[in-house]
Amino acid sequence: MTVTEEVSNAVPASPQVVLEASGVTMRFGGLLAVNDVNLTVREGEIVGLIGPNGAGKTTFFNCLTGLYKPTSGQVRFAGKPLAPKPTAVVKAGMARTFQNIRLFANMTALENVMVGRYCRTSAGALTAVLRGPKFRREERATRARAQELLEFVGLGKSAEHLARNMPYGDQRRLEIARALATDPKLILLDEPTAGMNPQETRQASDLIFKIRDSGLSVVVIEHDMRFIFNLCDRVLCLVRGEALVEGTPGEVQSDPRVIEAYIGTGEDDDEDDTPVTGEEGKA
Ligand SMILES: Nc1ncnc2c1ncn2[C@@H]1O[C@H](COP(=O)(O)OP(=O)(O)OP(=O)(O)O)[C@@H](O)[C@H]1O
Fold first, then answer.
1. Where are the annotated segments for Disordered (predicted)?
2. What is the ipTM of this complex?
3. Ligand 1 pocket, 205 CB below 6 A?
4. pLDDT for 120-173, tens place per residue?
């Protein structure tokens, strides 16, 4: 067999596992908010986390990102156990946004992104106070990178706008830019389209594809089913803290247990979040 034949017959290497959560459980007193949930995220994947209100999605996110120390279970990131501390999680290469916007309202868009960048700069407190050459060099680089990220998310022209004066959809993009400033390998987005109009939602979807194409993995919580099923490679549905179904969007959206979980809550009464089936889901 020639070398060429050997190469062409080789099984393509499967993408590396970035995040591995096993048996994650979180109790609040007598309430079991997350029960023995597993999740694997590979390089370049977009994974959706769905479930009715109170299913445990945000609690699970908080366990993954070090805000909560799970009652039991383990989170491994890039092959290593992850300390349940937000700073360690960010340093390891995981960034997130929150369900409610958490920007520095009285800072400009550029300054907000620069704050995200500081976890990757090395100037200590003394250097910062003395404002020596090293500090000034790093500050210039931080500013340039922040501007680059604003352009990436489509906010290049808003750099000097105060965060509080920006339209809602732009504030959400700004949060994403700030999270990207930490140089993550994986970004977790908690309801990135909440409160957005259909045009902003489409733009959010394009932005997430662009983030994935730049080499990151993405985990996203959303109630908007069309958004999730058109975006994700894989979807995990949580119900009452437990993993109900995990699979491709096609598998999850047609699973009767998922449909029942949503209809049972009456959540789709006035929101457009009924699981959609077949071609209906392909916007
Ligand atoms: N800090 C906390 N202390 C006590 N109970 C909590 C806490 N955080 C969440 N819970 C409870 O845990 C359960 C899961 O809540 P969680 O916010 O994770 O659900 P969710 O799926 O993100 O819901 P939603 O879609 O409404 O945001 C709920 O019953 C909630 O009331």
1. 263-283
2. 0.96
3. no
4. 666 555 565 556 666 677 778 889 999 999 999 999 999 999 999 999 889 999
Q: Judging by beta carbons within 10 Å of its beta carbon (0-12, 13-18, 19+), is residue 17 exposed, middle or buried?
A: middle
Burial 76-104 (b: 16+ CB within 10 A, else e): ebbeeebebeeeebbebbbbbbbeeeebe
Query: 52 CB under 6 A from ligand 1?
Result: no
CATH superfamily of this structure's domain 15-93+184-283: P-loop containing nucleotide triphosphate hydrolases (3.40.50.300)
Q: What is the pTM of this model?
A: 0.85
Q: What tens digit of pLDDT does each residue of 62-94 get? A: 999 989 999 999 999 998 998 888 888 889 999
Q: Could you report the per-residue pLDDT of 160-210, keeping only the tens digit for each?
A: 999 999 998 899 999 999 999 999 999 999 999 988 889 999 999 999 999
Q: Please report the atom of ligand 1 found closest to the CA of residue 223.
A: 25
Pocket test for ligand 1, best of 34, 58, 228 (most atoms within 8 A of CB): 58
Nearest partner of 257 among 279, 242, 271, 272, judged by Cα:
242
Task: Tell me the sheet residues that pair with 40.
Answer: 20
Rounded to the nearest angstrom, the distance between the alpha carbon of 15 and the centre of ligand 1 is 32
The residues spanned by each domain of the chain are: 15-93+184-283, 107-182
